């Protein structure tokens, strides 16, 4: 799966009208970005959102990061993914994840396995795309990573450190695709940077499955209390000047990631991260040829 080494991950489009979204996609393409990741978290449906973004661009690949398995039955996910693969050959990746509110008594691994079983046995009267559907699984623990290796093209991780990236690569082996999201903040003042980072991380420190994930990453209760220790915050949000941020992002590639999806934080809802995405494009993306490719 070739998504380029770096892409954009953003919640920003949840807060923008369609006209601004279309303009942003076109600007991202002009900057040279090849891949755009979107969540399903704040009200917009994963597949209509992806379809809008794909229709606004000409080359950009859109990845659901993630489409929640609880948001729709497998047959509707199947139908939506087939249509996007047919309409935009090679430009959509189906990212699936457990996601959402805790479900007492439901084990994520079993739920995902059952969902994939149903996806893989469905038949459809709809035309099949010439380019097959590609899928990734949101995965953190060893067993979900193994499932991503065996039942998908690979894994997508979210809010992890570079040590986890190395561990995930070892579990996935050399051939499965590994994409890693990481938050960044262009702020050089440590007090302000860590304050904004703690605001961003606050919700993740209130959910049991995220806390369990962070403990597996080696963080203690002291690291995870009071908004997060400096060590925790600095590992989960790369902040500083552009050179510092870029150097840290490349650490995931050195640790075994095929692709890093960069989430710029510190942007107010309704505002645009385009200036930051432009700076990142200049630092991270290959130079375009004279034809703009």
How are the secondary structure elements laid out?
Elements: E1 6-9, H1 18-31, E2 35-38, H2 46-56, E3 61-64, E4 67-68, H3 74-87, E5 92-97, H4 108-121, E6 134-138, H5 142-151, E7 154-157, H6 162-172, E8 177-185, H7 190-201, H8 208-216, H9 221-224, H10 230-236, E9 237-239, H11 242-255, E10 259-264, H12 274-284
Parallel strand pairs: 1-2, 1-10, 2-3, 3-5, 4-5, 5-6, 6-7, 7-8, 8-9, 8-10
Helix pairs in contact: 1-2, 1-12, 3-4, 4-5, 7-10
Cα radius of gyration in angstroms: 18 Å
Task: Tell me the series of helices and strands, N- to C-terminal.
Answer: EHEHEEHEHEHEHEHHHHEHEH
- Parts with pLDDT < 50 across at least 5 consecutive residues: 289-293
Q: How would you classify the helix and strand content by structural class?
A: alpha/beta
Strand order of the largest sheet: 1-2-3-5-6-7-8-10
Task: Report the sheet with the most strands, covering strand number, pairing sense and barrel closure.
Answer: 8 strands, parallel, barrel
Proportion of beta-strand residues: 15-25%
The coarse overall form would be: globular
Number of strands: 10
Q: Distance between the terminal alpha carbons, to the nearest Å?
A: 19 Å
Count of alpha/pi helices: 12
